[in-house]
Design goal:
Oligomer: single chain
Number of helices: 9
Distance between the termini: 72 Å
Helix content: 25-40%
Largest sheet: 4 strands, antiparallel
Number of strands: 19
Shape: elongated
Strand content: 25-35%
Radius of gyration: 37 Å
Structural class: alpha+beta
Order of helices and strands: HHHHHHHHHEEEEEEEEEEEEEEEEEEE
Length: about 450
């Protein structure tokens, strides 16, 4: 069975007419008819589209591998089967999971690499087969040309000197024809290489549209919990009508976009404001004409941690929460709440030093509040005296009594909650929340402990 018969078989299996298949491919019915009759063969791009429509691999279309069984509830042409195999992390992960199950334990990454290699080898084999057929036709053409030349030579011999000049002219034309054939061979080789690169891209290799990029943190507003990034991208292949849009997607937040401004050396740049977050994904989209291509640049980690103090805590001791009926309940605590604060200083802080880095964010005052549900039932002051001054540093002294100053990497505060008996009044949990006001005057609440009945 040749490829045309295979296309006709799959088309009828899917219940599609030649007109319907041609419409989905954006071609004429005559093109499909020529494929099925064997007078023409589809291009690589059309082979890829046909594999998506029929729900088979390119290798199966070319009959280079055995057809895989398909579930009856996943018909060809469905949204899943037509999806671009390179788009979306979730779709790719799902396919890899299926490949892993079929391989009987082989890792998804290894199976993906094997499947991609088999598909590429199949397509390249198909191209080599076309090249072999073309060379065979050229060989027959050269043989026919040689036969004509031989016949012409006989005629020249028979005709004498008069035909000698005609023979020279014919030999010259044959030489020109061979030169053209060599040029066609070189052109075809280049096309095969280009098609191979295109196949690699369609099989999942990432397309990089930026030759280089940079990002820099230029401003931080801890009060508003925002930061400003300066981002640049250098297109790999710049075009005069090209525009750029940068995107910053912070974890748990809506993505933020900003247009790029073109500067010297074809470099796009922008200043983009983002939430202070410990995970921000940067990407860029380049548009030329009606074509837009996007590239992931980098994930920025620890931006919030490096600029906003961190508060954690725990209860060292025992606690119980019980209920005596509707609208009642009690909680008992006997222990110590440990509050851990990690202030933030400028880059290069090295603890004890005469030249301290400038402080960025530290606590000014704090309290611990116990909540029964959403109702505050107990408040404890937190003593920060002797830990931080107005500059985020504290006095310290050496063994010989000389005064020095030091930056505190981590400060611990302790709140005693001994033999506390609290009324819950219908709540089913007791929570401990630390309220800290920082040097910007911003108060943040951090839950450090919870006990449920």
């Amino acid at each position: 069975m040749n490829i045309g018969e295979k296309i006709q078989q799959l088309r009828k299996k899917e219940g599609l007419s030649q007109e319907a298949l041609a419409e989905r491919l954006g071609l004429s019915r005559q093109a499909v008819s020529k494929w099925e009759s064997g007078t023409a063969i589809p291009s690589i791009d059309n082979l890829v589209e046909l594999s998506k429509i029929f729900g088979v691999t390119v290798g199966e279309l070319l009959q280079l591998e055995q057809a895989s069984p398909r579930s009856s509830d996943s018909p060809a042409g469905s949204e899943d089967s037509m999806a671009d195999p390179t788009s979306g992390a979730e779709g790719e992960n799902g396919k890899r999971a299926q490949k892993t199950e079929r391989s009987g334990g082989e890792t998804g990454e290894e199976q993906d690499a094997e499947d991609d290699t088999e598909a590429l080898d199949g397509v390249l084999s198909y191209l080599k087969e076309q090249e072999s057929l073309r060379k065979e036709r050229e060989k027959r053409g050269r043989m026919a040309t040689a036969a004509v030349a031989a016949a012409a030579a006989l005629c020249l011999i028979a005709g004498g000197v008069f035909l000698a000049g005609r023979m020279n002219l014919l030999n010259s034309r044959i030489g020109n024809m061979e030169g053209r054939i060599e040029a066609v061979n070189g052109n075809l080789t280049g096309q095969i290489n280009a098609v191979s690169e295109n196949v690699k891209e369609q099989l999942g290799e990432p397309v990089r549209i930026a030759a280089d990029y940079t990002w820099e943190l230029t401003a931080v507003d801890v009060n508003a919990m925002r930061a400003t990034l300066h981002v640049t991208a250098l297109p790999k292949a710049y075009k005069p009508d090209m525009t750029a849009v940068f995107t910053a997607a912070a974890r748990g937040e809506e993505p933020v976009t900003a247009p790029g401004t073109l500067s010297g050396e074809n470099l796009f740049s922008c200043d983009i404001e983002v939430p202070l977050n410990d995970e921000i994904r940067l990407s860029v989209g380049l548009t030329s004409g009606e074509i837009t291509e996007s590239q992931f640049l980098e994930t920025i980690f620890g931006l919030k941690r490096g600029n906003v103090m961190e508060i954690t805590g725990r209860l060292d001791g025992s606690s119980t929460v019980s209920s005596a009926g509707e609208g009642s309940g009690t909680a008992d605590i006997n222990g110590t709440f440990v509050i851990k604060v990690r202030p933030v200083y400028g880059a290069g802080s090295d603890g004890y030093d005469d030249q301290l880095s400038p402080p960025v964010n530290w606590p000014v005052k704090a309290k611990l509040v116990l909540y029964a549900g959403d109702r505050a039932v107990k408040r404890y002051p937190v003593d920060l005296s002797g830990m931080f001054d107005e500059h985020g540093i504290v006095p310290d002294e050496t063994e010989n009594g000389e005064a020095m100053i030091a930056q505190i990497d981590t400060a611990y505060f302790y709140v005693e909650a001994s033999n506390e008996h609290l009324q819950l009044k219908g709540a089913n949990s007791l929570r401990a929340v630390v309220e800290v006001t920082d040097n910007y005057g911003v108060t943040r609440e951090t839950e450090i402990w919870e006990k449920r009945r």
